Amino acid sequence: MTDGAGLSGHGSDRISGSPSPVARRSVLIHRFMVSYFARYLRRHLNGLHIAAWGLPPDLSTGRLIVYSNHPAWWDAALYVLAADRFFPDHESYAPIDAEMLRHYGVLSRIGAFGVDLESRKGATQFLTASKEILASENRALWITAQGGFSDVRQRPLGLKPGLGRLMDIAPSATVLPLAIEYSFWSERGAEAFIAFGPPLRAADLSAAPRNERFATLDVALTATLDRLAADVQSRDPAKFRPVLSGKAGIGGVYDGWRRATALLRGRRFDPSHQGRPS
User: Fold this and answer.
1) What is the tens place of the pLDDT at every residue in 250-275?
2) For the residues of the chain, what is the DSSP string, one character each?
3) This prediction's pTM
């Protein structure tokens, strides 16, 4: 969730019995959490990479809807970091399971809003909050469109119906598919990969019948996922651009010994698995 103008006072204090996500969002807490997630990713993953062809268009203004697959727990952190990196001029928001939000309440201060996945009122909560968020320019809504966790190879994707309703709420918005995948390459830590697909116009989607609308959204995200998967399977770093780099090597006593040995031999120590041996 990206930068805003301090603690926003826009919108009502409550939406359908829940605090307004716009009113709850704090720029100070957001900046802290961006820094926290960046450090956390560097500590636990080997890196975050974006496909060279998957960079998003320049969208410094306007409403934005980003929808993605949902392969892992890490997706929320990737949302925060990708929003900060690629859409710094937008305030970003994202729905989250209401029960999870009760455990991680700080996320409501950076744009997350709770949706009850176990009752019918969840759809109302989602659409009401989304309408408030997308009522203003320079706001972005990030959605794990499959709802729950799903394998990256799942086909069809099983997009949730609430996604299609957003086109009617914000017909002026740009809609971006986002593919997410994780894989182990040559280091002990996993690699995270993302790619944005070509932008869609919410107005065009809104004008289409409901079934055609979902088919277009599904095809766009599936094509982006398939293209990203092919690049990940190639294991060719040249096909990606770094977003964040993690900490290579094994760490601990073993890397300490390797570092000392390299120093004694007058060599530069490279902790990566493919680095020059000590």
Assistant:
1) 444 434 444 555 567 667 644 554 55
2) ----SSS---S-SEETTEE-HHHH--HHHHHHHHHHHHHHHHHHSSEEEEEGGGPPP---SS-EEEEE---STTHHHHHHHHHHHH-TTSEEEEEEEHHHHHHSGGGGGGTEEEE-TTSTHHHHHHHHHHHHHTTSSSEEEEEETTSS---TT-SS----THHHHHHHH-TT-EEEEEEEEEE--SSSSPEEEEEE---EEHHHHHHS-HHHHHHHHHHHHHHHHHHHHHHHHHT-GGGEEEEEE---S--HHHHHHHHHHHHHTT-----STTSPP-
3) 0.81
